[in-house]
Design a protein that fits this description.
It is an enzyme of class 2 (transferase). It catalyses: alpha-D-glucose 1-phosphate + UTP + H(+) = UDP-alpha-D-glucose + diphosphate. Belongs to the UDPGP type 2 family. There is one protein chain. With about 290 residues, the protein is of the alpha/beta class. It has one domain: Spore Coat Polysaccharide Biosynthesis Protein SpsA, Chain A (Alpha-Beta Complex), CATH 3.90.550. It is about 35% helix and about 25% strand. The protein contains 11 helices and 13 strands. The strands form 3 sheets. A 9-stranded mixed sheet has the order 5-4-1-6-11-8-12-10-9, with helices on both faces. A two-stranded antiparallel ribbon has the order 2-3. Strands 7-13 form a two-stranded antiparallel ribbon. The longest helix has 13 residues. The radius of gyration is 19 Å and the shape is globular. The chain binds 1-O-phosphono-alpha-D-glucopyranose. The site of 1-O-phosphono-alpha-D-glucopyranose (G1P) has 13 residues, from strand 11 and helix 9.
Length: about 290
């Protein structure tokens, strides 16, 4: 029996340097894709996977926006009710998370993804947990994290979502040193963070979804720096291989890298085309435009 995954960490204190100037004042996780901010897609994916506690690793400024989005806005709800805007009221109410489900912690310096997860340790109480990087938006049914939770129920241990990337892009990702691969589930003998294309052990890369065993903290506690002088989550997972089962899951779905302008535009088109209200207009617009 494996332990159920009930907690998710959202490391959202990043600087968004690949998408300036938009991210100068707007945190990446608040960028809208169609009619929702990225962070709301991430929360919904987590809810669909059975997550009950949402831990945001952020900073005091961005916390205000996250809180505003996920808590009750009594004035807005009253106004919508008064005006009979019931569909809008339903949409607004659906964004609310119960205050006891939400935790905030701060990462005051950009010391890396491993450090961001380490900052959430006080809320993770020894059990396994999930991590979602909201700028990796995944369109999938069931959601990517649900696919991983189902696999975790069978195999336990550390699980990461993976997909193949072009070899020239390996230096942007955590890359698996594959030991076996059945086309869906992959085992690895090691992981390398952001290797140069000529040094990458494969092109199978980690996408921003993780289920992690508490053992990763044994490595993260040492605050060892890796690629880019940062404390890397990839290195912590790699250090547990041999002690904790490790698997990569080639998830079913499409991933959009919304931390860059191209992925952001792509995602807006893809999610726009999913909207029953706008699909046909958008399709016509795109056809005419092209
Ligand atoms: C992070 C991880 C990397 C992973 C990537 C997925 O990198 O460190 O291993 O492949 O997310 O998006 P970042 O994008 O924060 O540089």
């Amino acid at each position: 029996m494996t332990t159920a995954i009930t907690k998710v960490v959202f490391p959202v204190a990043g600087l968004g340097t690949r998408f300036l100037p938009v991210t100068k004042a707007i945190p990446k996780e608040m960028l809208p894709i169609a009619d929702q901010p990225l962070i709301q897609y991430a929360v919904q994916e987590a809810q669909q996977a059975g997550i009950e506690e949402f831990i945001f690793v952020t900073n005091p400024t961005n916390r205000v926006l996250l809180q505003a989005h996920f808590s009750t806005n009594a004035q807005l709800e009253a106004t919508l009710a008064e005006r009979g805007k019931l569909a809008e009221l339903k949409i607004v109410k659906e964004t609310t998370l119960a205050p006891e489900q939400v935790k905030f912690c701060y990462q005051d310096r950009p010391l890396g993804l491993g450090h961001a997860v380490w900052c959430a340790r006080e809320y993770l109480e020894g059990g396994p947990f999930a991590v979602i990087l909201p700028d990796d938006l995944i369109m999938a049914k069931p959601g990517c994290l649900k696919q991983m939770v189902d696999l975790h129920a069978k195999l336990g241990g550390n699980i990461v979502a993976v997909e193949n990337v072009a070899r020239e892009l390996t230096s942007r990702y955590g890359i698996l040193d594959v030991s076996s691969d059945d086309g869906s589930i992959v085992s690895a003998k090691g992981l390398v963070e952001k290797p140069k294309p000529e040094e990458a052990p494969s092109t199978l890369s980690i996408i921003g979804r993780y289920i992690l065993d508490h053992q990763v903290f044994q490595h993260l506690d040492k605050k060892m720096t890796g690629s880019g002088g940062e404390i890397q989550l990839t290195d912590a997972i790699s250090a547990t291989i041999g002690q904790v089962p490790f698997h990569g899951l080639r998830f079913e779905g499409t991933r959009f890298d919304c931390g860059s302008m191209f992925g952001f535009v792509e995602a807006n088109v893809a999610f726009g085309l999913k909207s029953s209200q706008h699909e046909s207009k958008l399709r016509t617009y795109l056809k005419n435009h092209l």
